[in-house]
Write a structure and sequence with these properties.
about 240 residues; alpha+beta; Alpha-Beta Plaits; 3 domains; 7 helices; RNA binding; RNA-binding; rRNA pseudouridine synthase activity; Pseudouridine synthase; PsdUridine_synth_RsuA/RluB/E/F
């Protein structure tokens, strides 16, 4: 890879900015000053420094976010704040995107990455990756609803949802449930409950496959995947 491209990808500015760093003799490769950005380097083998700080090359980033309400699962928007707006600049330059969609008023686990192959594996209905949600429901959720979800409810547009696992935690005027689905249609969980004449009043995603919400993360906070989480994600590719 060209040295100037590598440094630009790692957040050291535009190619012009990188050229200025080289002109000031601030870039070294294997302890030798390099002024030519077109020099090719091996990110895995060469020892690169900028202003005496080691450059650790990353092609992909994998972030686990506890998404808050009020932000949308998109990369840009002219009206609303997006989940990408919550990231620090050193993560934004990787041009990451959210994997799947959480509604504006939904909280919880959201994976953000720039790895398109992984994103496809996680959201493709054919891969049957389970997504589990906690929800508060207006109305008493019954064993009959559990059976309907197990058989696949028909949504208002005639689409028959794939079978879902519905667990009742508390059946009252406002019920508490957990539900696991393997697809991600628009407003899916909300529409599934509307199909059984009930309304979702709070929704939080708890897990996606083996990735689980890190409850130590404050709403709007994120961290990089740990080794086990990353290993799981890479196993899907």
């Amino acid at each position: 890879m060209r040295l100037d491209k590598l440094l630009a990808n790692m957040g050291y500015g535009s190619r012009k900015d990188v050229k200025a760093l080289m002109k000031k003799k601030l870039v070294t490769v294997n302890d030798a000053i390099v002024k030519d950005g077109s020099v090719h380097v091996n990110p895995e083998a060469d020892f690169i420094k900028v202003n005496e700080k080691t450059v650790t090359y990353k092609k992909y980033i994998y972030l686990l976010m506890n998404k808050p309400q009020g932000v949308i699962s998109a990369t840009t928007d002219t009206r609303d704040k997006t989940v990408i707006d919550l990231l620090a600049d050193d993560m934004k330059h990787f041009n990451p995107f959210p994997v799947g969609r959480l509604d504006k008023d939904t909280e919880g686990l959201l994976l953000i990455t720039n790895d398109g192959d992984l994103a496809h594996q996680l959201v493709s209905p054919n891969k049957n990756v389970g997504k589990t949600y906690f929800a508060k429901i207006q109305g008493k959720v019954s064993a009959e609803d559990v059976e309907k979800f197990r058989n696949g409810v028909t949504l208002e547009d005639g689409y028959q949802a794939k079978p879902a696992e519905l667990t009742i935690l508390n059946s009252e005027a406002v019920s508490e449930i957990e539900v696991t689905i393997t697809e991600g249609k628009y407003h899916q969980v909300k529409r599934m409950f509307e199909a059984v004449d009930k309304k979702v009043i709070y929704l939080q995603r708890l897990s996606m496959g083996l990735l689980e919400l890190d409850r130590s993360l404050a709403l709007g906070s994120y961290r990089e995947l740990n080794e086990m989480e990353l290993e799981y994600c890479l196993s899907l590719k």
